Amino acid sequence: MAEPWWQGCVLYHVYVRSFFDSDGDGQGDLPGVEAKLDYIKSLGVDGIWLSPIHPSPNRDWGYDVADFEGVQADYGTMEDFQHLLDGAHAKGLRIILDEVLSHTSDEHAWFVESLTGGKDGPKADWYVWADPSKDGTAPNNWLSVFGGPAWAYQPARRQHYHHKFLRQQPKLNWRNHGAREAALSVLDNWLAKGVDGFRLDVAGTFLHDGALSDNPPVPSAERTRDDWAHAGNLQRHLFDSNLPENVETLEAIRKRVEAHGERFVFGEFSEEEARCGAYLSPTEGLHSAYTFVLLLARTLTPKFIKDHCETLSAYPAHWPTISFSNHDVPRTVSRFGGENPSPDLAKMMFALLLSLRGTTLIYQGEELGLPQASLTRDQLRDPVGDLYWPYSGGRDGARTPMPWAPGPTLGFTDGTPWLPATSEHEHLTVAAQEDDPGSNLAFAREMVALRKGSPAMTLGGLEFLDVAEPVLAFVRRQDDEAIACLFNLSAEPRFADIPELEGSILLEVRAGDAELRGGSIGLSAYAAVFLRL
Ligand code: GLC
After folding, report:
1. Sheet holding 514-517, edge to edge
2. Domain at 10-103+197-449, CATH homologous superfamily
3. What pLDDT does residue 282 have?
4. How far is the CA of 290 from the centre of ligand 1 (A)?
5. Surface-to-core class of residue 228, CB atoms within 10 Å of its CB (0-12 exposed, 13-18 middle, 19+ buried)
6. Is the pLDDT of residue 330 over 80?
7. Which of 56-65, 184-193, 501-510 shows the lowest per-residue confidence on average (mean pLDDT)?
8. Is there a common fold for 10-103+197-449 and 461-532?
9. More exposed terminus of the chain, fewer Cβ within 10 Å: N or C?
10. Rounded CA gap, 297 and 248, in Å?
11. 148 pLDDT exceeds 80?
12. How many angstroms separate the CA atoms of 465 and 504, rounded?
């Protein structure tokens, strides 16, 4: 039986508000995505993951949904969406929606009714409500990811409701049958319109502990400076998320999606969930998942990559999703290369992204080698930037407009962009790279083509080769095809002895220089090379 289409496919993550503005209001929109379909197609990818498109008061920029059935007015209309979907399908591109079903906006009609409809009302338990503790404080010690208690008091009910993120993002109660069915029908409705699948936001958090047990603290010896700033990290989230039975809920979601044919549903999980293994089991759960392990890494060593792959291999039936960059974390080249990243680093990271076993997520601009944008306090729009300044500028540095062409807004809009188009990206626009065979963009296209043209790179197993650090070497193998993937993770040229390479052929796709002599290979700084064994 042929493998499902999503195994080994390459998805391009479009952060809609910052991709391309078609109507001059300064915000990217769905017709803007449609206008750039040829560009996306030219990368060689299989489909697009669209960041949330539903109406939202934008406290957390679309991750607080006020109506799961509609389209955010800034982004266009339902007709615009249907047009984009049809246009993408006509070009052979799949469309994956980002569904945020663990919580809603506090402006969602479900929440308003839960709050005001009385404790016996039909939606009274659609959210996680609890009485105050005896001393009048929050019902338990749960902390919100964005800081402070994960509870908000509502005089109208004389109760607190649980919110894992902002207080404007009340947690939906997946233990309640009505709420659960309503959330599942959201998926049915969009699948009926023809979407190809979903990315599920914070998929480890659907279920909470019904007894509302306190979370245990992280022992002080294990706390980092970072944990103190992001106080939510001071406890282990064992009772507000990561419950073993969460996997059953994910399983039910997957079955619901599969009832519509060959669709794909993958989830976002935290590092802690990766440690608990709560997001996957050998046979159950979603089709695939990614965690923040690769997204948060700041130093790149062969050991780190091996450890990550080994964690995943504990779940042999699980198909991974690989992601180094998205709208929540600093862009890859800045994370690993600091303020003056070497130009070769971007290519090497892109090559590594496409070489690891899994379904691959490319974040818009990653193919251009964009660094993180630096923004001033008054330019920030992300609530996390607001909360954590000056310790952290939040997530906006990864969310600035896609640089298309020279000009004051880098070709993103005729109006005033919602986040500034940064001069740091001026020399990396699509127009500047389009006709340059040595550009990041040209390399990205070659790299995706290598991946798509090779069953071993798409679906094959991954075996590490024994080689001295800082060189990372592994073989992707499927049937008769075997491709060795070599990466010099350092800024210095390196020489590696790898007897398995004897007699192999260097592939044309490579970043940096490589010289092969028998079973020895010389690699320039940040080289990524591929050999056919
Ligand atoms: C996910 C999203 C992030 C959002 C959070 C709360 O992690 O990627 O942007 O803030 O969920 O919905």
Report:
1. 494-497, 520-523, 514-517
2. Glycosidases (3.20.20.80)
3. 47
4. 13
5. exposed
6. yes
7. 501-510
8. no
9. N
10. 30
11. yes
12. 14
